[in-house]
Specification:
homotetramer, alpha/beta, Aminopeptidase, Alpha-Beta Plaits, eight-stranded mixed β-sheet, four-stranded antiparallel β-sheet, 16 strands, para-aminobenzoyl-glutamate hydrolase activity (chains A, B, C, D), manganese (chains A, B, C, D)
């Protein structure tokens, strides 16, 4: 379908401008007020039926949310930077998820596309060698940078919205464009899934710019090997005491946390696949001569499949409690993020490849790449698959200036229109 | 009172014979069937009112008892070696405690003397340099030896029984002679105390041959510095699994026990005095390639006073459970022994010293020696003191051939009649 | 080649008798004096060139050898039970490996077959349901039983020796029959490999009765998934002290060992494949009130490939030393066994399958089974492959009465002649 | 000697003004530039021979010094607040110790008085109930407050300087007034002692306002029970790695530090007296999904005597290194402070009591109070005692508004002139 490919290419100048605007105003997880506001207004203008805020984000399932005070500050900033105050207010509490629906009115399938919106906690490089700096679209927010390409993802989503409208006649059923907050730290997907946004979806497509696909003109139709993961925070509360005068009156939170770190590392290996455990951060104590009464730690588990990760989490939870019991202190464990593993759908991967080879201009189409990491798009995929639908996670090939999450990260903006064209083709095919 | 001192000296030959008979037939804690049988018959013959078996040993408070099977084997051996079968049967289950009462029928105080009967798990030296070997009264029991002088203590008790009868006119009130099983491992005293055998006692006297008093003609009227102690056994039960094929199916008792040993050692020091913790023995696992499902450990705590020891025990119990929880295994904790600390009664120490200087032939009388160890006579002392009575723990000076619990241990038998005479003087004085 | 299959079947009665004789006289690793003596004499009688003792077992590479005293006792027992005293003497020190060579005098390849000889530390079931008991060929040695079928393996080897002689005309080059001690605990192969016994070998074939192939009339031509493994013993030596009176004078070997067990379990997971660590046995300390001065532990590591296992061993060795340093004690680490991983030779597996389908009477021939365990035949295979040869590890299908290493283990003796025929066919084919 | 007592009382108004000026300008350890400058100029004006800077502070023995950058900032602040720029420059690097010598020219003893100058890292209470706030002499420095009375100590020292000059005729030998930096954290005494400032001293007197003596009109002539202490910082450096993708490439500094904290807590109790160990602060790691490459901890040990503390330090140092070795990371251990224990000089305590009762107006004079903490004045005392001199640490009774180191701390300024008079009496007596 040469037309869509060409239509997309024609959008290039405005897509680049949009991506650079987003790059200049990056927003971290659960604070994408400006980004979401912009998406809502743009899709509304195109005639999409819009859902956002509490309607598409289940509060009980939001993980790793910033404090109320922080959220309020970010809302103000978004408004200052051009967000619609009415919309921002409706997304209060960080409910920045957005779903736009295009209903063709014709029978057909429901096809969903998922895009993530948040940036990283990274201070962007300002030196000459960094194109965003050289060309003047660097982040204007301290310690915030689109270093994982989600600015590109949002732009692809907006491009798809336009292309779909231009090709209404070729579509059937309903198309859902899902914009998710807080992918970094795998915190945001569950809340949208638990709000039911993909419960009616027959085909769900997610994807990522670059990553293990850093050649232009390349498309990976399906990745596999997502590790299931859970992110947990633990806080230990004991009783302080003078370490010289009355040590026995203390309840030592530092020793409890240190022991927890050691014990967690002893969780048994699993014969059914990969497992991981990491205590990445541990802070404890207030002063040299005081029996420490507080300690906190950041933990993550992973598993080659969801069951193994659940085994790790179950072991970890019991051990955290037992380590606290050892020193008679309290421990609070909170979920800070998570994602299941994915199931590789070989048939779909090959079907997409066949379609793409026919309709799109990629020089290379691969049907498999091993991810070796975690992504909470798997929550959407898992829900869709469990309800009888199909799902794929693609990679859109592009050269990158530096690794993801690196302060020098940048990508070739050509990838935007190509990915948008590809997704539009999928909408045509799978909505039928 | 020159008479008692002389009377006692006259008993020397028969006392030495008795001590050597006991030395030849040593019996470990809770298996003193022959020793007790002999005591009962001898005191009965002198006219004492006898109590023994379940009457003076509270089963629920017996600590560190051998298995039923072992006890039965020891009962048979005792009978083979001359014990009275009827008496042995009444002491079934290891209830080998004996109390003999001499009631003068006159008003007065109740004065009790406590003697311990058990031997050590030591293989006695058989070489020439060892007097019991040279003179033919070595232990005839494998891995059992009176290496702590309790054969001497029992003989002193029997001598006191005779001397009291010879001096009935000088006595008042009631005199109780208490023979306790299982002092080694501090296991036996509590069961007799809990049976109430000293609840009516006004004055309680215990003591030991040698120890920190290894000069002949010396008496220490009061020791102090007994550390309170608790002996515990812990058994961990997990689930075994093939360490290569399915390690995640195991529940690792070895790691739980190892962690418990480490954690116990981290119990806080105590600002109010000495504390101790020791895991002396740890055995775990069945084979190199099996996730271990069993582990056992022998633990002891000590404290400069009873409260500190209780702090240690409380911490240890919680930690043992928490260490088991860490690895999702079960732990059974059993009490294997214990003794409280003692309270030094300076007034009584000096009063005894004055009496002894007047009546007995000691060259040296000391009113204080620091013990620096544990002895469950403190259970008797503690009960008596708490009910308003008074108590002393003495040391009877004697040269020794080697340290207590050593396979070369032996003592100068002169100490027997001297100690017996001294205790008889105390009976006269304190029963009034 | 119907002839060999038939020839082998004709040997059945004598093979069963031989296997039952071996079953009655099981010998554990490094003590196979009777077994080896019997093999030597039997092969010598057939005209094989025999090598055994120090010639084929490199002393420096013997792992997990019993003590000199134990070995001497086993030598005596073997002689009592019919072993040739002269041969036994030549195998002193446990050098019970045997190599028999059949040189055809014709040009050709060198083909080797490897059989293991040792039994397990298992007390054999004596009840009626157990065929060896019912039919009178139970082990006559306490705590020793052929519970892994090595009696069958040796019998297969002896049958192959006969069949080769009967088919000399069909053979070329040289055939080596290798009988290895101490496979249990993966202790014996390295010493024979380091003695150079397979340095001239072009094709090496090993195999096992049953295991993951418990159907009769089935042959697995190649197994894979052997985990590389290392078995280590660690002994900690500290300084004892009275736990109450002078704990600071002790150097605590129990805490060092306990910490080592915990720390070993924290070795990082490996991203390149499976890893395992197990402390299967830990024994420490002498008495409850003594700071423990001794501790010992049995450890094993495994890896999905040899490099991962080496990573585990390197980490473990450093951690054992550091754990000793923590408590200022000494640690001695000794190698108790080990085996590398294997490389799957798909081409050979399929070639054997083709041959076997043509020549032998198996109903089922599989070219792949995952082992999921360790076997030190991999040392032979690894050496041969590294020197340019080829190697296969087969499984000979047979129903079994209970799992390997179980006291109820038994197998269908039909498997013996079938396996012998198969190996003889391989000799014919690969010696050409 | 009524005269000195009266002379001192007459100084009251100027002493209060001076103390309040110091209280308004508190300086933390090694940054007492203004305080020292003021002392130097005041004593110089009185005719004292002044020594300060590198002359009286041995650089190699300065513990827990701030960074060069911080020191420079504090030097600037001091000058801004009136310090003499020339003097401040001579104390660069934090060498803020001062010694003033009064040489009578007459034969006699050398008597030294030691005063500490630094403030605490405490934000002073600004509310009405706090007298310094109500009366306008609160700290003007953020997070810095004289919450331990060292402003009082310096004022006492300045008062003594005046009183000595007024009573030159009554004095003999030489009098040394020592002003020490960095007592908080026990960091500063060693550097002055190692510079030799008390090597010629016959009598050394230190002391403290309040503490365990909070009644006015009370003097404690000698405290005991200082615990020897050592403060150490440990920094662990490992290698970071992605916790999901390549955990085996990391060298985990967090686990090393956690293990160190646990292991340190297992250092054996000591039979010869009190011991303490505390890891008061532990910070490790950079992010949840990164194997942590950095960790730092603040440690302190204590001992009932210097030998026990040295035992603790030796054990701790070995364990820190071994814990680092466990995880193959590096550890740097730096000394952050320390003090030996003290020896109680009963004779001197009683002699001072007798003098004071005769000459001074105290209602109560005690010869003993147990300190139960640490103070680096013990470095001075220890050096003087080891060289044959005598030393005492006194407490000057005063009501206090809140505990030492509390943000509400304040004391009754009456104590200043009384303590100054008392010390002057000691100078008269002991210089003879």
């Amino acid at each position: 379908m040469e037309t869509i490919w060409k239509q997309a290419e024609a959008l290039k100048p405005e897509l680049i401008a949009r991506r650079r605007d987003l790059h200049t105003h990056p927003e971290t997880g659960w604070t994408e007020f400006r980004t979401a506001s912009l998406i809502i207004n743009e899709l509304k203008a195109l005639g999409y039926e819009m859902h956002f805020g509490a309607e598409v984000v289940a509060e009980k399932s939001m993980m790793g949310r910033p404090s109320v005070k922080e959220l309020e500050a970010y809302m103000k900033r978004a408004i200052t930077e051009g967000a619609d105050p009415v919309l921002v207010e409706k997304m209060a509490g960080g409910k920045t998820g957005v779903v736009g629906i295009l209903d063709t009115g014709r029978p057909g399938k429901t096809v969903a596309f998922r895009f993530d919106m948040d940036c990283n906690d990274v201070e962007e490089e300002k030196g000459e060698g960094h194109r965003p700096a050289a060309e003047g679209f660097c982040s204007t927010h301290a310690k915030a940078m689109h270093a994982c390409g989600h600015d590109g993802h949002v732009t692809i989503g907006l491009a798809v919205a336009k292309l779909l409208k231009e090709n209404m006649d070729a579509l059937n059923g309903r198309i859902k464009l899902i914009f998710q907050p807080a992918e970094e730290g795998v915190r945001g997907a569950l809340a949208m899934v638990d709000a039911g946004v993909v419960d009616d979806v027959d085909f769900l497509f997610g994807g990522h710019i670059g990553f293990k696909c850093t050649q232009a003109d390349t498309l990976v139709t399906m990745t596999d090997g997502f590790l299931a993961t859970t992110k947990m925070d633990a806080e230990f509360h004991g009783v302080s005491a003078h370490a010289g005068a009355a040590p026995e009156e203390g309840k030592n939170a530092l020793l409890a946390a240190a022991q927890a770190a050691i014990s967690l590392s002893t969780i048994s290996r699993h014969s059914q696949g990969s497992s991981r455990i990491n205590v990445g951060v541990l802070n404890a104590g207030t002063g040299r001569n005081v029996v420490p009464d507080i300690a906190s730690m950041k933990i993550e588990t992973r598993g080659g499949n969801t069951e193994i990760n659940e085994f790790m989490v179950k072991e970890a939870r019991r051990m955290l409690q037992a380590a606290a019991d050892l020193y008679d202190v309290k421990v609070d464990i909170s979920l800070a993020g998570g994602a299941p593993a994915s199931i590789y759908d070989k048939e779909l991967a090959e079907e997409i490849a066949a379609l793409v080879k026919e309709k799109c201009g990629y020089a290379h189409v691969l049907t498999y790449v091993d991810m070796g990491g975690s992504e909470d798009c798997t929550y959407f995929m898992d829900r869709v698959q469990k309800r009888g639908g199909k799902a794929a996670y693609m990679m859109y090939g592009t050269p990158i200036a530096a690794g993801h999450h690196n302060s020098h990260f940048d990508f070739d903006e050509e990838v935007i229109w190509k990915a948008a064209a590809t997704l539009t083709e999928l909408a045509v095919k799978y909505s039928a």
